[in-house]
């Protein structure tokens, strides 16, 4: 039976690039693999045929010979360097599929021969820190206690007892990975002897049992700058977990949460304070004292005839800016308070005031005029 054209086997054109040839083989390898085609008795031979085609076309010299002489380039005496892959015309499927396997999965573990370093970086840690609004305003120095994995002092982080050195793993030769041929697949796995570290320890440290680090708590002094808000992240380089067997230490990230305040509501760098004002003071006007976030007081003038919701601004009385710039402002929002538990005398005076104040409530007058107009329109 005559051999099919290698380009037709991979489903690519004769002028296909190396990347297109690889892509064509990858698609055919997935499509024709025997494990996926148990009901197709020809799947195995077709899979081998694709491997043979790829083994030739991926090699520049073999491809040039094939383009010139066709299949005859690899049959007795032609200048093509013998049969493709040196496997009696069947192709080097382990090599061909291994190339694709590495392309798909190899980079996850460092590719061919990448292995793993015997020393691995420690994990980063997260610490959630709650502060009051006053602390966020002023900034503070705070001591925190963090549970972490620290470098073992007994072996100086090497994991080996008595200053001895780790040995190169005899199973993987220091690569951290081993390969095994399974049918047409070349499978790469973490070395079972050294667990991917590339080295073994004959005499593990009695304190850390060969890990190079131990679990302990450590205290750290943290500088919380003025102006922090919920979600602010502070990085302490090198204060995370110690690395395995002397590897670099991870970082510690402190996430700030600012507690809600009884008096102030924060919006970016501005503060809002809702202040109750008596009905008489709102009508007549006057001065009130309001608190500020720094613990001080400010006097605010209430204009006569003020309504609920009216705001007055105190400039630069808000929160400091975390990354430069001036401080925010503080806004006083008035809440006109209706008196309760009135005495008979107070009720009598309010009824008298109500009779005399028919033209002194502009919002009421405007509202009821609009209501009257609405009713008349609906009747019409």
Description:
The chain is 27% helix and 25% strand. It is of the alpha+beta class. The chain folds into 4 domains: 6-109, DnaJ domain (Helix Hairpins, Orthogonal Bundle), CATH 1.10.287; 114-156 and 213-259, HSP40/DNAj peptide-binding domain (Sandwich); 264-337, HSP40/DNAj peptide-binding domain, CATH 2.60.260.20; 344-379, no CATH class. A 4-stranded mixed β-sheet has the order 10-11-15-14. A hairpin with a 5-residue loop joins β12 and β13. α2 (18-32) runs antiparallel to α3 and α3 packs across α5 (93-105). The longest helix has 18 residues, at 362-379. It is elongated and about 120 Å long. Zn(2+) 1 binds at residues 152, 155, 205, 208. Residues 5-70 form the J domain. GO terms for molecular function: ATP binding; heat shock protein binding; unfolded protein binding; zinc ion binding.
What's the structural blueprint in terms of helices and strands?
Elements: H1 6-10, H2 18-32, H3 43-57, H4 60-69, H5 93-105, E1 125-131, H6 133-138, E2 140-151, E3 167-168, E4 177-182, E5 185-190, E6 199-200, E7 213-224, E8 233-236, E9 252-258, E10 264-267, E11 270-278, H7 279-284, E12 286-291, E13 297-302, E14 311-314, E15 330-337, H8 344-356, H9 362-379
